[in-house]
Amino acid sequence: MGRGLPEPQLGTEHVPVNKLGVEATFRAFVEEPVFPCLAAKGLVRQRGYTLGVYGAIGTSASTEALTADLSQFVADTPADGSSFAAFVAVFRGRPPASEDLFEQYLWQQLSDLHRFDKASEWDPTVSSDTDDPRFAFSFARRAFFVVGMHPKSARLARQFSRAAMVFNPHAQFDRLRQEGRFERLRSAIRERDLALQKEPNPSLADFGARSEAQQYSGKAAEPDWRCPFHPRPAE
User: Alpha helices of 35-149 — where are they, by DSSP H?
Assistant: First the structure.
């Protein structure tokens, strides 16, 4: 765990969880009529996602299992974005008790994933510098936009009953842009999110305008916020 970060609250960590039950809960959450993300709704409807269930977020056991599953997802998903897909990691341990804690655990989990990643190169289509407007998290040389979800999120669209992280391949967004479909989909999702939340998302920004690192946890970033993630030097 990161320095100063408390151990995860285990809660139900050792209580067996039926994966089908967790998946049913996730599907029901996304299928709610007011849920704003139309892309996620499409993935759930077409079963275009892969879902894994793990222990408490940020533990070694969770990282080891998530590393294996995410590696397999990358191997099974076309690198050119031609297959719309996402990987959903749900953590069955008691969720962090605040937005601040969840943000810390999310970045600790991503840091641990990066440490376990056997790929020596970052996805060349994005930057590894979290201050760069073209930053995106990379695993197995594949760029992802990460969406954190948990019960204490201020964003209603992210208030899932458990801590979760959704890994969305960047390549599929590039594919949608090439096909001229991205802007219309993005606008529709933002309009639906505004209708649900009744106020704009302060962290929202287009890729290339500001580092997307601020958006991963769902917590509104303070002006002086600095991302705690530091990629290892390229080999």
Answer: 38-46, 60-76, 99-116
Query: Is the sign of the CA dihedral 79, 177, 139, 153 positive or negative?
Result: negative
- Ramachandran assignment for 6, one of left (phi > 0), alpha (psi -120 to 50 degrees), beta (any other): beta
- The Cα–Cα gap between 152 and 233 comes to 34
At residue 198 the predicted structure's pLDDT band, cuts being 50, 70 and 90, is very high
State both tokens at 91: 């953590």
Residue 18 neighbours by CB distance under 10 Å:
9
Question: 138 forms bridges with which residues in the sheet?
Answer: 143
Q: How far is CA 172 from CA 6, 144, 169, in A?
A: 36, 10, 6
Residue 80 per-residue DSSP state:
T
Mean pLDDT of 17-34: 92
Separation between Cα atoms, residue 195 and residue 81, nearest integer Å: 30
Coil, strand or helix: which one is 78?
A: coil
Alpha-helical segments (H) within 167-216: 170-178, 182-197
Q: Which of 133, 131, 168, 134 is nearest to 149 (CA)?
A: 168
Shortest CA distance to 58 belongs to which of 126, 12, 123, 10? 10
Residue 153's closest CA among 228, 215, 229?
215
Q: What does pTM read for this prediction?
A: 0.91
